[in-house]
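Exercise: predict the fold of this chain.
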Amino acid sequence: MPAPSPSASPPDRVRRRRAAAGRGSLARPGADLRRLPTGLDLRGVRLVEGVRAAFAFGVVILINIWVQWPPLLTMALAANLACFCDNGGPMRVRLRALTAFSVLGGLLWAGLGLLQPLGLLVVVPVACALIFACSYVRVWSVQAQSAGNVLVVVLCIALDRPLGPEQAGIVALMFAAGGLWATLLALVIWRLHPYRPAHRAVAEVWHGLARLCGDLERLVALTEPDADAFDGHARGHRRGVRASIETARTMILDLARSRERVSDRTAQALLRLESAEQIFSALIAVAELIESRPSPSRRALAKIFLRRLRPLLVTIARAIRDDASLDLARLEHSIARSAEGLSEDATLARLAERIVGRVRIGAKLSTPEGYRPGGTLTDGRSLDRWTRYVGPLRQNFTLASPNLRHALRATAVAAPALAATLTYAGAFTHWLVMTVVLTMQPFYAATWQRALERIGGTVLGGLAGAVLAYYATTPLMEAGLILVLSVVGFAARQISYGFFVTCLTPLVVLLVELLEPGHSSWEIVFMRAGFTVLGGLIAVASCLVLWPIWEPDQVRQELRRALKAHAGFAEAVLLAGPGEAREAAIPAGARGAGLALNDLEAALSRALQQPRAGSHPEVESAMVADATLRRISARLTVLRHAPEAAAPEAEAWRAWIAATLAALGEDRPLPERPALERGHSLARLVSQVDLLVGTLRPGQIRETDPAEVVSGPVESGRAEPGPGIRAVTPGDRPVRAS
């Protein structure tokens, strides 16, 4: 859709944005907020991790084939489940999580086995309390969430049959031995590079910048600015890069805290990430210059610069990913050449020089000598155990918390499922409770996605497993296929949850045949598929019935946070005086605004998956506001580098912009609007703020006054329609400016 014409009034522009908001494109599937984020990410293949996981329990299975001692199968299962808990990361964090899982899993299996003969009145309440605890520990970390989910699997298996005291002791010891064997293998014997996950995360940030740059090059080639295309670009690329930056930052800081020291490698990763974040900020400004109806000369210069920049970003990303060295002398010519010939456009040249400087730092860090800042101790302040463990539990212990609602929902739904499966016991009934609890997520959209992936993966994987089981006629052949499937499944764990389940289901079919011979493979497949479909439907329905989180309410809260964050960003850019305080406040404001927009778009995406929420007026308005806030953020980034942003004559407008954004975020009356002069440097930013007001405060929509049409921004050198405004009351008939 072409950009609104100069004469388009704010109400018209709001309606056009509402009609277009939320749509994406094939080039940027992440730009479509209505689409479930499913798909395969082949960059997540980890073959070595798959081989290690297969070795962890495959060795025990092979020993059992030779020794024929059943408790070894418990040990093999524990080793397998421990591999599910290991999400990588710092060694100390993984050690705590895996050790706790090994010990607690053994105690849980033994304890529930001893309680099982006492009947439903004892077993169900105890099991539900444990399910609540396993679901609620997600407030601590991703590692705790994974361990809690796998402990639910242990709980369901433990309720299959009663245990005597001697059997319970053996089970507890063998389970702990299996989990600790997998831990020893992962953290000591077959220890993968501890820095690799963090460096891969940083490499993904640079790859994201290259993709963003390539998409900008495509957009600059358009003959007419396309508002939909730029909205899709912002949602599909800026959101992804910001999320990648925060993921990499978290991994690097966790690594540093676990060692209580910032090593050379960690410091280099932080410098690479900082350089990438500054490039990201400057590319946002370049995107704004391209979108703001630029002159043909600016368009041509921007296209040349982006075409030269993208290969440099790809080269540095590959060097970081492969831990390879670059020949800086050979690369320097391309780096210097990328910003040549831009002097006729001062603003673009300034942004290009800033980007090139950070690219040079990124390249320097990938040379053999690199930067050696030297290891420095962290500030020495680590969170005490009370703050680290009890604090999150207390903060989330409120019905306003999605985590507490999720734990209560999982417990409430698991209770009747447990009672039914224990009453009508069977070899596979525990799969129902497993599916219900593991499919259920704090939000409806995530539960719906997980149910689709789990059901589809189970059906496809079950068919494959039945065929493989038919041809595996001996325990040794079954063990061999189990090892192969384990390698494939664990290597593909990061590709897609659905693909992982597809690989996991044949493994389960073969394991059941190996551990409990006598069952037909087709019987196993049909029972697992049936319980998976039933459990998935129960999980989806429960999210709509039990303590539902209505996404329009979440969207409203996230929109207010985004407005407040942008008010802070605007205040840092437009009102702060020059100096170190301003230079420190602007990056923090930009990061806060970017994270707030990501949270808003996540809430919008969930709302669009919830029944009838997508047509909710607040959701539609928030979608328009999201696109407008991204433009405001981009314009503020341009003004950060433009000297006219601090022009004295803009004082009143700078204060009005920040105050208006803050008033919208806090639901306060809007401040009085000054009169806009011709040729004002803040004209485009004011226009976007006016559009935001028209979207969120329809009773205070303001109309363009023909007498106040102004020239474009100083740095563009071209005339641009300005936002001359007059107040319009709800009873006025809108008058479209000509």
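Check your answer against the key: Confidence is low (pLDDT under 50) at residues 1-11, 13-30, 371-381, 703-738.
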